[in-house]
Design goal:
By secondary structure, the chain is an alpha+beta fold. Helix content is 50%, strand content 21%. Strands 1, 2, 3, 4, 5, 6, 7, 8 and 9 form a 9-stranded mixed beta sheet that branches. The longest helix is centred in the N-terminal third of the chain and has 58 residues. 23% of the residues are buried.
Length: 320
C-alpha cells in the first residue's frame, strides 16, 4: 500500500507539473502549502481510508468464516450425538418405538402403547444354570465367573437377532436365566391373517436356533445346559413404561400362557398351547399332545410339544 502511494505521487507530480506551478487565488492553511504537498496529503488520506475499509472487510470475512466453521462443527456434533442417541435408543427399544420417541411431534406425557390382535411370545429358560451350575465361592469369584458364562450364552442368543430372517423377532428382556422374545410386533400388520401365522413360524425357528446355539456352546465349554421353552400366540398389548429408564414390555393372557408353558414344561422340549399347535400342524410341523396339565390360574389345559430333531429322549404321547 505504501509503495503504491509513493509511485502514485511521483507519477502525478511528473505528469501534472504545470498544475503545481500555478498560484492559488485564496489564502488558507492548505493554500499556504505547495500543491505537491497538498496532493500528497489528500492521496495519503484517500489510501488510508481505503486501507481501513479493506482491513474491516477482511476482519468481517474472517469473523464470518470462523462463525461458519464453528456452526458447522456444532451441527456435526449435534448430528453425531443424535445418531448415537438413536442407536442407544434402538438398543433398548424396537426400531419403530424408538422412532416414536425421537419424533418432535410427540407429547412428553404421552403413554406409548400398541395393541396387537396376533403376536407370538416365547419364554426360554435354562433351569439347570442356577440349580446346578451357579455357585458363590472363591473359585467362581463369588459367582462372577458363573455370570460371565450366562452373559456369553445371552450374547450368542442376541446375535441371532441380527440375522435378516429374524428381523421380526424382538427381545423383550431376560429374567435370571430366562430369555423372553416375541414376534409380530409390527404396527400396521397386526390385522393381516398371513402375518398372524407367519410370525409363529419365525419365532419357532428362532427357538430352534437357540437350541442349536446352546448345544454348540456346550461343546465348546464342556457344559450340559438345556433349554426349557414355552410358546403361545394371540392378542397382546405392547408399551413403554418408565421415564428415566424406559422399558419396552408386553402384557396379556398370551404372555401369561407362554410363561406357564415354560414353567410347566419339560427340559429339552418346546411346549405350546393348543391353538399354537393347530397353526403349526397346519403348516407341516409335527406336534405331540402332552395331554391336560394343571396350569396356575387357568385350570387344566391341553398342551403340545413341538417335535424336533434336537429333542431329548422320547415321549409316549399322542400326535396332533
Amino acid at each position: 500500500m505504501l509503495l503504491v502511494l509513493i509511485l502514485y505521487n511521483v507519477t502525478f507530480l511528473v505528469l501534472q507539473l504545470e498544475l503545481f506551478q500555478q498560484q492559488p487565488t485564496s489564502r488558507s492553511l492548505l493554500n499556504e502549502m505547495s500543491l505537491p504537498v497538498q496532493s500528497a496529503i489528500y492521496l495519503a488520506f484517500f489510501f488510508i481510508t481505503l486501507h481501513v475499509i479493506d482491513r474491516k472487510v477482511e476482519y468481517t470475512s474472517r469473523l464470518d468464516f470462523l462463525w461458519k466453521t464453528k456452526f458447522k462443527s456444532e451441527r456435526e456434533e449435534v448430528e453425531t450425538m443424535g445418531g448415537v442417541n438413536k442407536i442407544l435408543l434402538e438398543n433398548i427399544l424396537p426400531a419403530h418405538v424408538a422412532l416414536h420417541f425421537l419424533s418432535s411431534n410427540r407429547r412428553l406425557d404421552e403413554l406409548y402403547h400398541q395393541r396387537y390382535k396376533s403376536a407370538s411370545v416365547l419364554f426360554a429358560s435354562i433351569p439347570n444354570f442356577f440349580k446346578e451350575f451357579y455357585m458363590q465361592n472363591d473359585i467362581t469369584r463369588d459367582g462372577l465367573e458363573c455370570l460371565r458364562v450366562l452373559n456369553e450364552i445371552i450374547y450368542d442368543f442376541d446375535k441371532l437377532l441380527l440375522k435378516p430372517k429374524f428381523c421380526v423377532v424382538e427381545k423383550i428382556k431376560t429374567i435370571g436365566s430366562t430369555y423372553m422374545a416375541a414376534s409380530g410386533l409390527v404396527p400396521g400388520q397386526e390385522n393381516s391373517q398371513q402375518d398372524s401365522q407367519h410370525h409363529v413360524f419365525v419365532l419357532l425357528e428362532f427357538a430352534l436356533s437357540m437350541i442349536s446355539v446352546l448345544n454348540q456352546f456346550n461343546k465348546e465349554s464342556f457344559n450340559d445346559f438345556k433349554l426349557r421353552m414355552g410358546m403361545s400366540h394371540g392378542e397382546i398389548i405392547a408399551g413403554v413404561v418408565g421415564a428415566q429408564k424406559p422399558q419396552y414390555d408386553i402384557w396379556g393372557n398370551t404372555v401369561n400362557l407362554a410363561s406357564r408353558m415354560d414353567s410347566h414344561g419339560i427340559v429339552g422340549r418346546i411346549q405350546v398351547t393348543e391353538d399354537t399347535a393347530t397353526v403349526l400342524t397346519n403348516h407341516n410341523f409335527e406336534c405331540v399332545c402332552r395331554g391336560p396339565i394343571a396350569v396356575k390360574g387357568r385350570g387344566n389345559l391341553i398342551t403340545y410339544f413341538v417335535k424336533t430333531s434336537m429333542d431329548y429322549g422320547d415321549l409316549s404321547t399322542t400326535k396332533l
